[in-house]
Design a protein that fits this description.
Blueprint: E1 6-7, E2 14-15, E3 19-24, E4 28-30, E5 37-39, E6 50-52
Antiparallel strand pairs: 1-2, 3-6, 4-5
Amino acid sequence: MDDLNSKTPYNDIVLPTTWDIEEKSPFIDIDSNRLKVNYTNLDDYKAAIVRANHPIPSQCGIFYFEVKIIDKGENG
């Protein structure tokens, strides 16, 4: 999938639009549209990280970001 760059009309700021398939924990799966993340490790005690395809630029001022976490494990 090509990198989806979302430039604003203000100073050519590039905003995050998807999850980065390279910058993630090994037990994280990202779906083909790069918008959904699944934790795949059977050990519920491990932490995981995933980054967006672009950082939120400081010039942005305000940026809304929402994460939905679904607890499917005993240790969540």
